[in-house]
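User: Please predict the structure of the protein below. I'd like the answer in structure-token form so I can feed it into my own downstream comparison script.

Assistant: Understood. Taking the following sequence of 166 residues as input:
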Amino acid sequence: MIRQINEVELQDAVDRIAEIYLTNFNDRRPIRELSNDILKLSENDGFMCLISTQLGTIDGYLYGYKSEVTQFYRQLLDQFLSTNEKGMLEDAFEIVSIAVDKSIHNNGIGTQLLDALPPGKYYLTSDVHDVPANTFYYKNDWTLLKSNMYLHPSIPQKNLYYKEVK
């Protein structure tokens, strides 16, 4: 089952979300620090978190917020975009993170999380060399808007994906 959780539910779910994140991504932050970072992100306008509970506990998540041109990451992206592409991201939702428990990858949960997005414009980035992620977005009909973006010395090169959900 995929459902959106509210702020109170996020307080209870954040450590499990952080645990799934840490098992999927090369991030050395302690779980408490990551949990606090997620809670801080939840203060952004338009924050939304979807969770999957196919196996009775949280086994996948997707979270993000409404993108604004004044946000740091968005400014990094915008320097690579044409006027038309910037317009596509106007009023879009940035998917900051999506992941599924590694023990149950390839069971359709990631696709179900993306399919549960309400109508709107969405974008996300993935590491250029993350072939499974890039393949996943391609198979789920996301448009590759830009590739090989070198955003910052501390950030691996990124691909930018976009999708409008009707």
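That's the full token string. Strands lie at 2-5, 48-52, 60-66, 93-100, 120-127, 143-149, 158-165.
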